Amino acid sequence: MSTQAIVPSGAGPVHEAGGRSAPDPSIPDPSIPDLSIIVPLFNEEDNVAPMYEAIRRSVADLGRPVEIVFVDDGSRDRTLERAMRLERQTGPVRLRIVAFRRNYGQTAAMAAGIEHARGRILITMDGDLQNDPADIPLFLAKIDEGYDLVVGWRHDRQDHWSRVLPSKAANWLIGRATGVPIKDNGCSLKAYRAELIKQIPLYNEMHRFIPAMSSLGGARIAEIKVRHHARRFGASKYGFSRIYKVFLDLLSIAAILAFNRRPMVWFARLTLTAAGLGLVTTFFAILRAVDSAGQPGIVFPGVAMLFGMLTLSTLFLGLLGTLVYASVARRLEPFLRLKARPIRGEPDTGPLSGNLS
Q1: Residue 53 belongs to what domain range?
Q2: Do 312 and 246 belong to one domain?
Q3: Domain membership flag for residue 21
Q4: Which residues of 198-224 are buried (b: 16+ CB within 10 A; e: fewer)?
């Protein structure tokens, strides 16, 4: 297990056992990246090399160790072959490759890249060169200001109206449903603190809802304008089949946000609604029995019993949800902007989890 020494200002060098000098923590270790840039790729053989070179140019003067993580999402062309050719090149920016056996989708590719990334700061971007790697320093500057998540806003999109209009409608709907008004949830160009994004489960089309999920942990979110270019090579993977998937995921996210921290309140609304409908149905059953000389029929009593069972079921689920949430919440480490430093002489419990601006 590796340890990191915290050296007070003005102190002399720290020596490890055996007389060796410990590494200076103020000097970044080039073998450990400070920044990881994650690029999902699917049938982008003509974009691989230009994307790699554009990223290298954009990070050349950052003065921090950088790695690029290419995730091949089961490409059927020569995307993986060309990426592996670039991987063999030497230089200050290391390229690492993750490859799927078949196509799983952008969210799965992004999740795999995040899992394999080693940087303190993670940046995701599309592999079609529509996102501009030259914007990377802008994201790092915002992260250094103390933000936990920085979202790109393609204010001048170079896409066909058939993509722009549904995207604007979806962004408005997502903002209304989640309470997190982001102008461009679909922009893949984002920057994250690693300890934040690695705690967020990603599946289906959930990469669009990262800001909403991040808000659950109290993350500080910023949005900046970014450049957007028309696609030069390859074909767009966007289709109208994504719309219903995004809509279903939006319903899931809205339920999660409503359920979060107050599961009993969420279920109580359903319970009260079912109980109210049950009482109304029972009232009509009684009226029918009076009007029909004691013959209420079977419809109203049956519906009343159904609402009664629904009331008990939702009440039980609310209690169960509260118990499950309380159990899980005790095991989850909250996202902290700053952890307490260890007292001298006591073991370190972990690195800092964030910066205070």
Answers
A1: 35-259
A2: no
A3: no
A4: eebebeebbbbbbbbbbbbbebbbebb
Q: Please tell me whether residues 169 and 280 are part of one structural domain.
A: no
Q: What is the 3-state secondary structure (H, E, C) of 74-131?
A: CCCCCHHHHHHHHHCCCCCCEEEEEECCCCCCHHHHHHHHHHHCCCCEEEECCCCCCE
Domains contained in the chain, number? 2
Q: What residues contact residue 6 under an 8 Å CB cut-off, 6+ apart?
A: 25, 341, 342, 348
354 touches 148 (CB < 8 A):
yes
Strand pairing class (121-124; 190-193):
antiparallel
Q: Please check whether residue 194 is in contact with residue 120, taking contact to mean a CB–CB distance below 8 angstroms.
A: yes
**Helices (DSSP H) in 4-98: which residue ranges?**
48-59, 79-87
What is the distance between the alpha carbons of residues 150 and 254, in angstroms, rounded to a whole number?
A: 22
Q: Is 29 exposed, middle or buried (0-12, 13-18, 19+ CB in 10 A)?
A: exposed
Please name the residues in contact with 96: beta carbons below 8 A apart, sequence gap of 6 or more.
Answer: 67, 68, 69, 70, 87, 116
Quick check: is 30 in a domain?
A: no
Chain center to CA of 345: 37
Question: Nearest CA to 131 among 73, 80, 191?
Answer: 191
Q: Tens of pLDDT along 47-94?
A: 999 999 999 999 999 989 999 999 999 999 999 999 999 988 877 889
Query: What are the angstrom distances between the C-alpha of 51 and each of 38, 93, 210?
Result: 12, 13, 24
Whole-model pTM? 0.66
Task: State residue 228 phi and psi, 5-degree precision.
Answer: -140, 130
Identify the residue with better confidence: 30 or 348: 30
Out of 25-29, 167-171, 265-269, least confident range: 25-29
- Do 170 and 75 lie in a common domain? yes
**Whether residue 115 is found in the same domain as residue 212:** yes
Residue 274: both structure tokens together? 């079912």
In a domain, 230, yes or no: yes
191/326 same-domain check = no
Residue 195 CA: distances (Å) to CA of 64, 86, 204: 19, 29, 22
Measured distance CA(170)–CA(167) in Å, rounded: 5
